[in-house]
Design a protein that fits this description.
Blueprint: E1 4-13, E2 16-26, E3 31-35, H1 42-49, E4 57-62, E5 65-66, H2 72-78, E6 80-82, H3 95-103, H4 110-123, H5 139-151, E7 157-161, H6 169-184, E8 188-192, H7 196-202, E9 205-210, E10 213-218, H8 220-224, H9 227-234
Parallel strand pairs: 3-8, 3-9, 6-7, 7-8
Antiparallel strand pairs: 1-2, 1-4, 4-5, 9-10
Helix pairs in contact: 3-4, 3-5
The structure holds adenosine-5'-triphosphate (ATP).
């Protein structure tokens, strides 16, 4: 069985079918990109994986265990963490405290949580900003803090939702480097991202969706050259 697998997952919101029978899997440490135009169902898939929204149908497996009916906090404790498209730091807390809050998932000791948080801030190039209020950070640093917060729960699978949105080209390159570094540390990653540079720079496999349905999935070059993918992104006359 794969390390992580979604099997024919479906999500209906009333009459709207946001996700229809999507299946994909990934192995430990693998990075996959989830792409699709606005409103195609990418964030909903993340919300289903975390059980922020219950599935309408389908199954989700992590490390051989079915997880789709577990509560969100249990899924996180098992090792799946995520970031949000709209970053959500605890604004009145320092950068360090934001990351420590997550580290308490696996320890009751303040000194251990602090030590782990400092390690993660070093890893995410945020160590020099540890005492700043989170609300004082630039967008790029907030995105980094969002990743650091997710890492603080010690995930084996990380869901990254538009980590590079709003970043300039240099910051985008830095985000790609952070993602690669996380992957090298053995953590599997699913990336939702509109910037193809980020997807192509990091992903070993791409799943392309439109209107909640799979267009195709597989090797990145093949997927982005698929006529239906080009059509979904650029319109009929480019296909
Ligand atoms: N809580 C909800 N209630 C009703 N409809 C929803 C809800 N969440 C998402 N949708 C709808 O489901 C569809 C998929 O939305 P989703 O946010 O998953 O797309 P997305 O691919 O992440 O888009 P974007 O790239 O713009 O972030 C959209 O039509 C959206 O309006």
């Amino acid at each position: 069985m794969a390390f992580f697998e979604v099997r024919r997952i479906v999500k209906n919101f009333g009459g709207l079918c946001a996700v229809h029978e999507i299946s994909f899997s990934l192995e430990k440490g693998q990075v996959i990109g989830l792409i699709g135009p606005n409103g195609s169902g990418k964030t909903t898939i993340f919300n289903l994986i975390n059980n922020f929204f219950p599935l309408t149908a389908g199954e989700i497996y992590f490390k051989g265990k079915r997880i789709d009916s577990l509560p969100t906090h249990k899924i996180c404790a098992l090792g799946i963490a995520r970031t949000f498209q709209v970053v959500k730091p605890l604004k009145r807390m320092s950068v360090l405290d934001n990351v420590m809050a997550g580290a308490f998932l696996h320890t009751g000791s303040t000194s251990q949580a602090r030590a782990r948080a400092l390690e993660i801030l070093e890893f995410c190039n945020l160590i020099n900003k540890r005492d700043l209020d989170a609300k004082k950070l630039t967008i790029a640093d907030r995105k980094r803090l969002e990743i650091a917060r997710a890492l603080s729960t010690d995930p084996e699978l990380l869901l990254l939702d538009e980590t590079a949105a709003g970043l300039n080209p240099k910051e985008t390159e830095e985000a790609i480097e952070v993602i690669k570094k996380i992957s090298r540390s053995g953590i599997a990653i699913i990336i939702v991202e509109h910037k193809m540079k980020v997807i192509m720079g990091t992903s070993e496999k791409i799943v392309a969706i439109n209107f909640g349905r799979e267009i195709t999935q597989g090797e990145p070059r093949e997927v982005i050259n698929h006529p239906e993918v080009i059509k979904a992104y650029l319109g009929d006359h480019y296909a």
